[in-house]
């Protein structure tokens, strides 16, 4: 059984899959409390569903892409079984994870979108750095940036850990906090091998998260 906050069909708003029609499975619960979190409604509550029920709901949308998100999906042990079941069904599956929990047991067919928490998140000490050893070229690393201090910190991690040699790296500005044009200028000035990403769903629909 899993606690599920919502299952819905929308455009992927982030990562290299931005713009692709996707089914989102938002699991309930998260051990982190990032200052910019926009899904705090998924911290508690939700509905108990077994994996077969979740799979039927996903299939009703006839999707190609499926994203398991949260909250923090890996906070529920049965999320690993769900991810494998989705891959076995032939979906192209991605996992959005905070980077605070071990990803080593996640099915390798899953594209793991791993956050690295910056100072501005308030949860930098929760980063589980051993996760970097598990990443492959079809995974992605994401830095959500609050300000120039976060940018400088992320740039230092990017270069010293040679993250761009592991997998694609995304720099994302916190919505309505860091000017995307300023972030673009910094990236260009420093010639960083990263992708600037926006939250497409918020550009389309404003604060209506995910829809």
UniProtKB/TrEMBL annotation:
InterPro entries: 7-CO-7-deazaguanine_synth-like (IPR024924), Aldolase_TIM (IPR013785), rSAM (IPR007197), rSAM_QueE_gams (IPR027621), rSAM_sf (IPR058240)
Pfam families membership: Radical_SAM
SUPFAM superfamilies cross-referenced by the UniProt entry: Radical SAM enzymes
Positions of substrate binding: 11-13, 26, 69
GO biological process: one example: tRNA queuosine(34) biosynthetic process
Reactions catalysed, as given in the entry: 6-carboxy-5,6,7,8-tetrahydropterin + H(+) = 7-carboxy-7-carbaguanine + NH4(+)
Start and end residues of each Radical SAM core domain: 17-207
Binding site residues for [4Fe-4S] cluster: 30, 34, 37
GO molecular function: 4 iron, 4 sulfur cluster binding; carbon-nitrogen lyase activity; magnesium ion binding; S-adenosyl-L-methionine binding
Binding site residues for Mg(2+): 39
Residues the record lists as binding S-adenosyl-L-methionine: 36-38, 71
Entry EC no(s): 4.3.99.3
CDD domains the UniProt entry points to: Radical_SAM
Membership in a protein family: Belongs to the radical SAM superfamily. 7-carboxy-7-deazaguanine synthase family.
Summary of the function given for this chain in its UniProt record: Catalyzes the complex heterocyclic radical-mediated conversion of 6-carboxy-5,6,7,8-tetrahydropterin (CPH4) to 7-carboxy-7-deazaguanine (CDG), a step common to the biosynthetic pathways of all 7-deazapurine-containing compounds.
Protein name (Swiss-Prot/TrEMBL): 7-carboxy-7-deazaguanine synthase
């Amino acid at each position: 059984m899993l606690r599920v906050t919502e299952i819905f069909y929308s455009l992927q708003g982030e990562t290299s899959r931005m713009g692709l029609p996707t089914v989102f499975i938002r699991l309930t619960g998260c051990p982190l409390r990032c200052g910019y979190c926009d899904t705090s409604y998924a911290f508690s509550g939700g509905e108990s569903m077994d994996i077969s029920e979740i799979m039927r709901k996903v299939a009703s949308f006839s999707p190609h892409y499926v994203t398991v998100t949260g909250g923090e999906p890996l906070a529920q042990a049965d999320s690993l079984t769900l991810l494998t079941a989705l891959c076995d069904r032939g979906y192209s599956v991605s996992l959005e994870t905070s980077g605070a929990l071990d990803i080593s047991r996640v099915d390798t067919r899953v594209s793991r979108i791993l956050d690295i928490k910056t100072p501005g998140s308030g949860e930098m000490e929760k980063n589980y750095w051993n996760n970097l050893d598990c990443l492959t070229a079809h995974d992605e690393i994401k830095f959500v940036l609050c300000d120039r201090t976060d940018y400088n910190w992320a740039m230092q991690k990017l270069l010293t850990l040679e993250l761009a040699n592991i997998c694609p790296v995304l720099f994302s500005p916190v919505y309505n906090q860091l000017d995307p044009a300023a972030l673009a200028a910094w990236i260009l000035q420093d010639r960083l091998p990263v992708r600037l990403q926006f939250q497409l769903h918020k550009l389309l629909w404003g604060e209506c998260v995910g829809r």
